[in-house]
Inverse folding.
């Protein structure tokens, strides 16, 4: 089945710096890659996603890039703020499971002011 | 209504109890999911319902029994659970049951403690 590897597991940055989280996937047929943000004690929330026919997508301070050849996709957060502190999960379709998603292990982002 | 509502928010149950978790959405989504999330871990898929039919069961023990009474409701019946089943149980829905469209909408979860 699909396997999603996420790095790093923890990331500490200063306010205003950029943060980059990378995920790799194994199934070359995967075509949809969302990113979720989960604050402590809360639900995961979709922050951005990308389809395999697009190389990059931006939404204000957040961007996602996709390299289909290398089978990896990355989340980029610019001008980080303390409220960006959370756990971030990448995901990809679970092979043979229709619309089900499999999640990476998560990255705990800490932004210090 | 753009939310997935889960009840109860917290549940403490003994190992001999029977309880149910409920999930409701009124967005017309045709796929609904149960995930289990342990502390500091990613959500793990348990069940998938597509058009109100169980399409995926990720080898979940029979002490967890899902039910989809209609297109808006999803239940998870619990019986004879173990302490290691303590976790956050997340319900999610997505619009299209055959193709991922706009990703999932997650409910806020039920935090389950088995004593």
């Amino acid at each position: 089945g699909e396997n999603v590897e996420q790095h790093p597991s923890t990331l500490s940055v200063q306010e205003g710096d950029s943060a980059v989280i990378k995920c790799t996937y194994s199934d070359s047929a995967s075509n949809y890659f969302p990113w979720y943000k989960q604050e402590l004690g809360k639900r995961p929330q979709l922050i951005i996603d990308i389809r395999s026919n697009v190389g990059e997508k931006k939404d204000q301070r957040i961007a996602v890039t996709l390299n289909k050849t290398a089978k990896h996709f990355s989340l980029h957060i610019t001008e980080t703020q303390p409220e960006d502190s959370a756990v971030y999960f990448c995901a990809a379709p679970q092979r043979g499971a229709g619309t089900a998603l499999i999640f990476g292990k998560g990255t705990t982002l800490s932004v210090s002011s | 209504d753009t939310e997935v509502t889960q009840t109860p928010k917290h549940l403490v149950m003994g190992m001999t109890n029977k309880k149910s978790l409920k999930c409701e959405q009124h967005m017309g989504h045709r796929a609904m999911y149960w995930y289990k999330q342990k502390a500091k871990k990613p959500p793990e898929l348990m069940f998938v319902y597509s058009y109100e039919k169980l399409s995926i069961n990720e080898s979940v023990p029979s002490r967890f029994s899902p039910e989809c009474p209609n297109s808006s409701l999803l239940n998870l019946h619990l019986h004879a659970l173990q302490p290691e089943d303590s976790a956050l149980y997340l319900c999610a829905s997505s619009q299209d049951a055959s193709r991922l469209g706009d990703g999932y909408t997650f409910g806020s979860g039920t935090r389950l403690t088995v004593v």
In short: The longest strand of chain B covers residues 18-25. The two ends of chain B are 35 Å apart (CA to CA). Residues 40 and 87 of chain B are 11 Å apart (CA to CA).
